[in-house]
Amino acid sequence: MYSIIQDSSERASQDLPPEAHKRLYISCRGVNPDLLSQTILRNIVVSGIEVNTMYEPKQVVSTEAEIREVIGNVLYSQDTKCINHIDAHCRTWIERSTFVVISTFNHLGQVDVAPKGDPSGSWKVLDPHTIAIPDRLGNNRADTFTNILDNPRIGLMFVVPNRREVVRVSGAALIVKDPDLLESMSVKGKLPNFAIIVQVEEAMFHCGKSMIRSNLWSPDKWESVEGLPSYGQALVDHGKLSISVEDMQAGVEQNAVEKLY
């Protein structure tokens, strides 16, 4: 017997067919963590209730030797490219970057990846071992901040529009509100409330194959966005909100105009 959570208050029990006799992941709020599996979702319907079991991998790679057997040894130029500071090349790239992706995780190993965008020059290279990233108005979840307070490890990927390559940086982070630093990060007369200081341990350039394969900078090759959900639609559906999609999307658009900085 498995307990299936239909919503935050209602529970039901069902006998599962033999093919579903696995630990289950129930895609509803209030799920019991003990029901989580290490496999990928596959849908089964049991007595009208949707239960999500998960794909079970058949050939799991567990050693680097297995990987090297397939891809070979690391190229010399790639093995030596990682440096422990921000040199002139990395500094120029970071200062020209307008988009950075920040990865953090808490003490449980739960990962968050957050994008940040600003005019070029907004990411500050304070010295060869220190970068500062301003925090602009957002959704107030503060996932990056709470993770940093819990675990200072951080990774960043700096993107420059119309360049295939990226610069990767990793190290330790802390959150500051130093007045002079925040003043230097002002945009349209608005100061950030906080800045993330990154104490650099590794920095490297990463090749442009991912950008080439994705056609990210080739608008003529982009597919239509028709059929994708709006942000408002996703917020309403995922949050099971009573507000209409139209009103939510209108609020999203207004927020993007009035609360960008």
Structure description:
The chain has 261 residues and is an alpha+beta fold. It has 8 helices and 11 strands. It has helices at residues 64-71, 76-79, 88-96, 143-150, 179-184, 209-214, 231-239, 245-258, and strands spanning 2-5, 11-14, 40-46, 49-55, 99-105, 111-117, 124-127, 130-135, 153-159, 166-176, 194-206. A 7-stranded antiparallel sheet has the order 6-5-9-10-11-8-7, covered by helices on one side. The chain has a two-stranded antiparallel sheet with strand order 1-2. Strands 3-4 form a two-stranded antiparallel sheet. Mean pLDDT is 86; it is low at 1-46.
Element layout with pairings:
Blueprint: E1 2-5, E2 11-14, E3 40-46, E4 49-55, H1 64-71, H2 76-79, H3 88-96, E5 99-105, E6 111-117, E7 124-127, E8 130-135, H4 143-150, E9 153-159, E10 166-176, H5 179-184, E11 194-206, H6 209-214, H7 231-239, H8 245-258
Antiparallel strand pairs: 1-2, 3-4, 5-6, 5-9, 7-8, 8-11, 9-10, 10-11
Helix pairs in contact: 7-8
What is the structure about, briefly put?
25% of the residues lie in helices and 30% in strands. It is built from eight helices and eleven strands.
Question: Based on the structure, what is the oligomeric state of the protein chains?
Answer: single chain
Number of E strands: 11
User: In what range is the share of β-strand residues?
Assistant: 25-35%
| CATH architecture assignment name of the largest domain | Roll
The CATH topology annotation of the largest domain reads as: Pnp Oxidase, Chain A
Side-by-side strand order of the widest sheet: 6-5-9-10-11-8-7
Number of helices: 8
- Overall structural domain count: 3
CATH homologous superfamily caption of the largest domain? Electron Transport, Fmn-binding Protein, Chain A
Query: What is Rg?
Result: 23 Å
Q: What is the structural class?
A: alpha+beta
Helix content: 10-25%
Mean pLDDT across all amino acids? 86
Q: Shape, please?
A: globular
Distance between the termini: 53 Å
Q: For this structure, what is the CATH class of the largest domain?
A: Mainly Beta
> What kind of sheet is the major sheet?
7 strands, antiparallel
